[in-house]
Specification:
With 309 residues, the chain is α+β, with helices and mostly antiparallel strands. 30% of the residues lie in helices and 31% in strands. The chain has eight helices and twelve strands.
């Protein structure tokens, strides 16, 4: 049973389905489906040099790799590679071959530093360290039993605050782009990001197939979007928090918590049964908010880094 690594065929729906299936099996806490995978491939920024790969055994997709250059980072030469292998197909060399091919591509694209998320389990950490990756910060996946949880009661917005859905900004989403850029700029992480391309944001975020505009909730203060929680749904009863943040000028007023609570209540009413989110392990305030909602840690990843050359 020879392992073959190849580029995905974006026009082949079986490749998107196989890619999504493997990633879901390897990391159940991450939302995704074939439509989302195909959309991301079609809308990849050219400067990201993305090259999704799959590993096959006897024609079956058993592993996949997400890789690219952080073109929107302040520092040049930063790349990322995340490897997923189906739990039932591990130990056959698929992960090693995917990593090797990914590193070669990123090095040719100018990457000098590579980051990778690795599950915080002995086997995965040992694999990363064998290939020259050193551990750094960590992050948690959290899960909420939305069907059975007792959510905090809904609260009326304070004076001067209005809750709106993202759908209400359909005629002009630019204010949400501005808010997203403000909150992304100081999001915890090893690699910074700067949102400056509104047209690309429209194409890849606003029109993303997982974004649920009816459940995405925005706290507006005196007509200005001040905090938001971006909701994602996969059509299978799963809800994910794509991003929750507050404009620095409005922090400390509980606006993000208010928006997220309303979004969760409406998600449950819409038939969602599970809710997922992710937090940097050092982001105490957001972890406390999610604990207040009833989220529990379901997996932890450790960011690993390798310097090429």
């Amino acid at each position: 049973m020879t392992v073959i690594v190849r580029d995905v065929r974006p026009e082949d729906p079986e490749d998107a389905a196989g890619f999504a299936r493997v990633r879901r099996a390897a990391l159940p806490c991450m939302l995704g489906n074939a439509a989302q995978v195909a959309f991301d491939w079609a809308h990849a920024h050219p400067d990201a040099h993305e090259r999704p790969l799959v590993a096959e055994i006897d024609g079956e997709i058993v592993g996949c790799s997400q890789l690219g250059i952080a073109y929107d980072a302040p520092e040049p030469g930063i790349g990322s590679v995340n490897i997923y292998v189906h739990p039932e197909k591990r130990g056959r060399g698929a992960g090693t071959l995917l990593l090797r091919a990914s590193e070669e591509h990123l090095a040719a694209a100018g990457a000098t530093t590579l980051y990778s998320w690795v599950l915080d389990e002995p086997g995965f950490r040992a694999f990363a360290e064998r290939h020259g990756y050193a551990p750094s910060r960590s992050a948690h996946f959290l899960r909420l039993d939305l069907a059975g949880a007792e959510l905090p009661p809904l609260q009326e917005p304070p004076a001067g605050v209005e809750l709106r859905t993202a759908a209400e900004f359909a005629a002009d989403p630019r204010p949400l782009f501005v808010l997203d850029a403000l909150t992304t700029a100081d999001e915890p992480g090893d690699v910074g990001a700067q949102l400056t391309d509104y047209e690309h944001w429209l194409a890849t975020t606003w029109h993303h197939p997982l974004l649920d505009r009816e459940l995405t909730t925005v706290a507006v203060v005196d007509g200005r979007p001040a905090a938001f929680t971006a909701a994602q749904t996969d059509g299978a009863g799963r809800y994910g928090s794509g991003m929750t943040g507050t404009d620095p000028a409005f922090r400390g007023r509980g606006l993000a918590k208010l928006a997220k609570n309303h979004s969760l209540h409406r998600a449950r009413a819409a038939g969602c049964t599970e809710a997922f989110t992710g937090n940097d392990a050092g982001n105490g305030p957001m972890l406390a908010i999610n604990s207040w909602f009833g989220y529990e840690i379901c997996a932890t990843e450790v960011r690993h880094v390798r310097t090429l050359g």
